[in-house]
Amino acid sequence: MGKILLKIKKLKVKANEKEILKGVDLNINSGEIQALLGPNASGKSTLAQAIFGNPKYKITQGKIIFGGKNITKFFPENRVKLGMALAFQSPPAIRGVKLSQLLKKISLKENLSSIPEQAYLLEREVNLDFSGGEKKISELFQILALNPKLIIFDEIDSGLDIQRLEKVAKIIKKELIDKKISVLLITHWGQILNFLKPNLINIMFDGKIICQKKDYKKVLRTIKKYGYEKCKAKTK
Amino acid sequence: MAMKNARPKLNNNFWQVDHKIKNIFEPKEVIILTSPDAWRKFKWSRKWFEKKPKEGYFIWVKKTIDLPLSTCITIASPKISQDLTNLLVIEKNVKAKFNVICNAAENKLCGKHRAKGKLILKDNVSLEYNHFHKWGEKDFVSPDYEFILGKNSQLLYTYQNLFPPENLQLKTTIYGNENSSSRLNFIINALNSNIRIQDIIYLKGKSSQGIARLRLAGRDNSQIEAISKIFALAPSKGHLDCRGLLLNRTAKISLIPEIVCQNKKAQITHEASIGKISEEELNYLRMRGLTEKEATDLIVTGFLN
To answer: Whole-model pTM above 0.90?
Structure first.
C-alpha cells in the first residue's frame, strides 16, 4: 500500500449548532479501498461533506490533510482540484443544464470516460427525473471526469437493485480500483463490499469511528448479529 | 440610399447602423424595403403602418424560404436616437424563420432605440421569430411589437436579452384568431437595469392557444416588473408560466400574471414563482470544481434555458 493520501485528525463538526462528528480519526493510503459503515444518522455523510468543505458543516476542531496539505480551510473547488471527488448519495437536479454540458465544464481530463450503454443520460438535464440508478451513473460520469486520486462514494449502493449494484461495482473496479485510485465506500448495509472487497473497514457510531478491521466479512456478520455498537468488542 | 442585394455582412437581409442602411439582401419571393420606401410604394401597407414611418424595415414574405431571414439594427455612435417602425407580412401557407438582432456596438453610447413593430401572419403561417438584444449599460430601449395571427397560424417567439440596457420597456401583444397557436419565451438577465415587461395574449378565435413563459434573472442593482396577461374571448386555451430568480440583495423582481376569461369554454391557467439560488445546487457544483461564480453562472444559464 502507498503512503498516506488523506489524514483526518480529531475532527469535530457541527451542523445547525449540533455537534455531529465528535472527534474522527481516519487515514487512507494511496491505492487503498476502505469502507465506512454505520447506522443512519451516525455522521457518515457529514464526514464526507466536511472533507469536501461544504460550508453548511462547521469544523470546530481537528484537521484534514490531503496529499500532505492542510486543506481544512480550503474552498470545496480547491479541494477538488487537488484530486478529491465525492459521489453524492442524493445529488440535486440542475435544471436547464445537460449532463454533457456539465461534464465539459468540470472535466480535468482530455478524454472523457464513457459508459456506452448509459450515454443517453448525457443529453438529459443533470439529475432531473433520473431514477435512483441513473443518478448513480450520472455521479460516476462526473467523478471520472475529475481525474481524482481519491473518491468517496456516499451510499453508492442505496436505491439500487442487485443487478444495477453489480454493474456499478464493475465500473468502479475497472475505472478506479484497477487504476490504483483510493476509494472510501460509505454504506450502511455493506452489500457492495462483497463486490469491491475493501482493505479496511471502519465502523462509525454516534459521530466517532469506534472500530477498524481488515476482515470485512467478519465485521458484516458481527454487525448483523450484535449491531454496530458491539462491533469492537465482538470482533477482537 | 441603400445598396440593394450586395452580399451582406453576416448574411443580414436588412442591416442598419445608427440611421444608415448598410445593406439590404432580398432572397427570391421576399420583398425587403425601408419602411418609408414601403409606405410610398405599397399603399396597402399604410393600413398597418398607421402613420408615416421615419425609419425601419418592411419585409414581405410571399413564399416559404429554406434559410432563416435576419435583420440587424445597431447603435454605433454616441447619443443616437432610433425611432423604428417595422412591418413584417407573411403570406398564407408560408413557413418562415427570423433571427432579429438589435444591439449597441459599445457599452456607453447612451443610445435610444424605439421600435414599433407589426407582424402580420396570414392564414396557415408558421413563424419562428428569435429576437436577440444586446445593449450598453447607458442605453434606453423600448420595443413594442404586435403579432396578428391568422387562422391556423403558429408563432414561436423568443425574446432573449442577456445584456440589458439601463432602461428597457418591452411590450408585446398577440392577437390569436381561430385555431392559431402562440408560444412566447422571454429570457432576460437583468444587471444594473430597470426593466418593465408587458405581454398580452388575446385569444380571439375558437380553439386558439397561447402560452407565455418568462424566465427573469435579477442581478445587481436591477429592477424587473413583469405583467403577463391572457384574455380568453373565445373557447380557447392559455397558460402563463412566470419565474424569477433573485441573485442579489440589490435586485427586485415583481411578477404579475393576470388571466381574464370571457368565455365559459375557455381554459386558462397561470403559475408564478420567484426564488433564490439553491445552496444545495451551488455546493454540489463547487464540489465538482467550479468556483462560486462559475457555479452561479451555470445555474442561471440553466434557469434561463
So the answer is: no
